[in-house]
Design brief:
Helix content: 40-55%
Distance between the termini: 25 Å
Number of helices: 13
Number of domains: 1
Order of helices and strands: EHEHEHEHHEEEHEHEEHHEEHEHEHH
CATH superfamily: Luciferase-like domain
Largest sheet: 8 strands, parallel, barrel
CATH topology: TIM Barrel
Shape: globular
Number of strands: 14
Strand order of the largest sheet: 1-2-3-4-7-8-9-14
Length: 401
């Protein structure tokens, strides 16, 4: 089945919606390719990185959170002052901050950034990582706690009078009115692949986040989120999909680069010298998202137009780890394949973090936006996606041997 229509085909109405790009802010030059032992913030590097995202045309940047990382709220506040347009997404674990305080912090960030704040709720996919900060709830209860947390965030922003709450996970009296956001509200993002994640995101999320999976599987997951939202009688969440592109001037050069990268990344993760909060060692990951990526990787290396699973395999699917491999044209076309399925927030971050962010901004984002502008102006697709999905996958498998 062809998932990407031929060039010149009529564009469905949904294709005219806005598509925006997300990256991730890095605090120092350490990468999976060349890890640098540090726990610190390289401020000149952060300034340069934030400027590169702003100049490159990204719309959002994710500020990640881990027990041994910098605080996402503080970094988000810094990034908001280093940029004028970029929207900071705060990764927030409900076990770290009471909901009234989280609402206060987010509203403060929203006012400082004049309405640019977004929050991404992380229920927690690793018992060991949660325990490092004193959280011993089992996974199913972590999602139940997140549900209560999201409901209290919104009440804290919008209740006009003080209110009390005696819930399963949170209890307080006479809170509020809380500190108000800059605008009407702050978007709340939910991610995950478990049944509990879908239920939470479909019923309460403004955004639902996926890691990069094969097109048919992402389609099924998007439909599942939409069905839950429809059943709850609420607007469908925007769909966020994350990839780790490996780009070079030609497809052949990109595949050669990808093979070099995967060997280096594999050594880094085997040594456990980078992103320990995601490092699963050789054990089976607890979170469903990582289990799914490893399942896809076990079946084959390449899917659809350019989705490469080898990077997930060598990292034991530690976090977002699936690559799109090819020339800027191939990667842009692959991104548009996901846009055609309903994704409208595309996260792309590389392995050579700063240089990749710059390259994507110069060579990939413009191609996607040019194609979308063509569709809006003509009602028809351009030539960027003329190749049948899988054409580059076949070439890639040949290169992989």
């Amino acid at each position: 089945m062809t998932l990407a229509p031929d060039a010149g085909a009529t564009v469905p109405e949904t294709a005219a919606r806005a598509v925006q790009f997300i990256s991730l802010s890095h605090l120092n030059p350490s990468t999976e390719l060349e890890p640098i032992p540090t726990r610190g913030i390289d401020l000149p590097f952060l300034r340069r990185y934030a400027a590169a995202l702003e100049d490159g045309g990204y719309d959002y940047t994710l500020l990640p959170y881990g027990s041994s990382t910098a605080d996402s709220f503080v970094v988000a506040a810094a990034v908001s002052q280093l940029t004028e347009r970029l929207r900071p997404i705060v990764a927030l674990r409900p076990n770290t901050t009471p909901p009234q305080v989280g609402a206060q912090k987010l509203a403060t960030l929203d006012q400082l950034s004049e309405g640019r704040a977004v929050v991404h709720i992380i229920s927690g996919g690793s018992d060991a990582e949660q325990a490092r900060q004193g959280d011993y709830l089992p996974k199913d209860e972590r999602y139940a706690r997140s549900t209560e947390y999201v409901e209290l965030l919104r009440r804290s922003w919008h209740e006009p009078e003080p209110f009390s709450h005696h819930g399963r996970y949170y209890r307080f009296d006479d809170f509020g009115p809380g500190f108000a956001p800059y605008g009407d509200t702050i978007p709340i993002s939910i991610g995950g692949s478990s049944d509990e994640a879908f239920e939470l995101g479909g019923r309460l999320g403004d955004i639902f986040s996926f890691w990069g999976e094969p097109l048919a599987d992402i389609r099924a997951q998007i439909e599942r989120v939409h069905a839950i939202a429809d059943g709850a009688g609420r607007p469908r969440p925007r769909i966020w999909v994350t990839f780790r592109p490996i780009v070079a001037p030609t497809d052949e050069q990109a595949w050669a680069k990808a093979h070099d990268y995967v060997e280096r990344i594999g050594r880094t993760h085997k040594a456990g010298t980078f992103h320990k909060k995601y490092h699963h060692g050789t054990s089976t990951p607890e979170n469903v998202g990582s289990q799914r990526l490893l399942g896809f990787a076990a079946q084959q290396d390449v899917y659809d137009r350019a989705l490469w699973m080898r990077t997930a395999a060598v990292t034991n699917a530690g976090g977002a780890s699936t690559a799109l491999v090819g020339s800027p044209e191939t990667v842009a076309a692959a991104i548009l394949d996901y846009v055609d399925l309903g994704a409208d927030l595309i996260s792309i971050r590389g392995y050579d973090t700063l240089n990749d962010a710059i390259d994507y901004g110069r060579h990939v984002l413009p191609l996607v936006r040019q194609e979308l502008a063509h569709r809006e102006a003509t009602g028809r697709r351009g030539t960027l996606q003329h190749e049948h999905p899988g054409a580059y996958a076949t070439a890639g498998r040949g290169d992989l041997g």
